[in-house]
Amino acid sequence: MSIGIADAFHTLVRDSWAESALSNLYSSRYKAAAVTPVVEGSIVFLEVRDKSLSDNFRLLRAAIERRRSAKSIPYTVSVICIREGIDSRTSVLRSCLKAIPLIASAQFVFIDGSSLFLDSLPLRKETTVIQTWYACGAFKRFGNSLNDQESDRRKRDRGHALAYRNQSYVTVSASEVVWAYAEAFHMEDRIERILPIGVSRTDMFFSSKYREKACEKAAWILRRMAPELFLDRKDEAKVSDSGLDATSRRAAYARLGDVYSDQPKESALAVGQGIVPGKKVILYAPTFRGTESKAVAPNRLDIPLMKRELGSSCILLINHHPLIKEIDRPKIPDDCRDFAFDMSDRLSIEELLTASDVCITDYSSIIFEYSLFERPLLFFAYDMQEYLDERGFFYPIREMMPGPICSTTQELTEILKTPGAEFDLVRVREFKYRFMSGCDGHATARIMQLMDRISEKNSNER
């Protein structure tokens, strides 16, 4: 590290990550790197929080790679993970300094969240930033639309208000939500730059191959975790004939799912059996409480009650928000481990949405993705008024939610015990068309077309 950078680093530490020092350091390093021309076809995926390329970018990158091979387009792709707001400030600083030369020479920068780092850069006009926000629809208020209480808390938590000043375009899930993103990003004067062309990662839900693979993977993982769920009478008789006792039979079936296999012969065994034979799969996927740096998992779901009421006909898959550390997740009671399964690190949320028959959530934006399947949604909103006062929503929440709202586990189980009684799937379908009309399996193609139009426009202006 040079003397100048080292001095700047020590200043940041001494001033507790002072905003002015950050801006000056990043800005000066960017200006020094931007003396060379932008490289045509250079693309940067800026991952703000994830450790690797997220699902939000994976389909886009794959489309870019296919284009490069088929049309010999000279794309160069870089993935930068800065872990802003997640890793230590020292680590984030180093990652950002490494990222600056790549961003300075990029024709396109893709980002799917808020970044103080990107906000601080004096980006040149030849670089186009495309914001593919990580969530679909518009549910909880975010960005500059937060109420005063939450906005002040975010300033304390993150350093300052989010400006989103360096966004060239924003892609969203439907025309219905354009106004909300304009407000959140202070883009009221550039509302034509907010494009309802869809969210790339939702394209996977329209692939029958992806859906089958997700369900097969879920089945194999559950077989490893609870092989007894898969032992029907036919299986029992077949394995009993081999002379194995009950313990050995369970171990034998567990080994089948130790590693999910892509081998057609093995994968075919799961086809048509359902995730768990004879059981309905309930997904519980709540969002976090508190701040991003001090995220807390909700802990009000009564799992033993759900098992008593629903255990004969259902299993429960749980997915905690990525900000919830494993050590902080509520524990599943030992006597419920054949009914409830924490899948947070085993399957992606997209795979879980695909594999579930019913989704229970609270204030998570996964309701928009799940509506694409037109399946039942329930809302466990025991702290709705508190959450409403603290965070706020873009729409009247009781009018918006396309399913029953419950404040106790007993209410949830009563509804789930009478399938279809409280579910209005017509309302779910209307919700889908309202908030997800741009997500039809072709969002990635439209984003690629946007890149083509931008490249052509820039070429004509040169």
- Overall number of strands: 12
Shape: globular
Distance linking N and C termini: 38 Å
Q: What proportion strand?
A: 5-15%
Query: Within the largest sheet, what's the order of strands?
Result: 2-1-3-4-5-6
Mean pLDDT: 82
- Determine the number of helices (DSSP H or I, runs of at least 4 residues): 19
Helix content: 40-55%
Low-confidence stretches: 6-15, 154-161, 239-273
**Main sheet, how many strands, which sense, barrel?**
6 strands, parallel
Structural class comes to alpha/beta
Radius of gyration: 24 Å
Q: What report would you give on this structure?
A:
- This protein is an alpha/beta fold and 462 residues long.
- It contains 19 helices and 12 strands.
- The strands form 2 sheets. The chain has a 6-stranded parallel sheet, with helices on both faces. A 6-stranded parallel sheet has the order 9-8-7-10-11-12, sandwiched between helices.
- α12 links the parallel β7 (280-284) and β8 (314-318).
- α8 (208-225) runs antiparallel to α10 (246-256).
- 37% of the residues are buried.
Provide a concise account of the structure shown:
The chain is 42% helix and 10% strand. The protein is built from 19 helices and twelve strands.
List the helices and strands and how they pair.
Blueprint (H helix, E strand, L loop, with lengths): L2 H12 L4 H15 L8 E6 L7 H17 L4 E6 L7 H16 L3 E4 L4 H4 L8 E4 L16 H11 L10 E3 L6 H7 L9 E2 L12 H18 L7 H8 L5 H11 L7 H4 L12 E5 L18 H8 L3 E5 L21 E3 L6 H7 L2 E4 L4 H6 L5 E4 L3 H7 L6 H4 L4 E2 L2 H9 L7 H11 L7 H19 L1
Parallel strand pairs: 1-2, 1-3, 3-4, 4-5, 5-6, 7-8, 7-10, 8-9, 10-11, 11-12
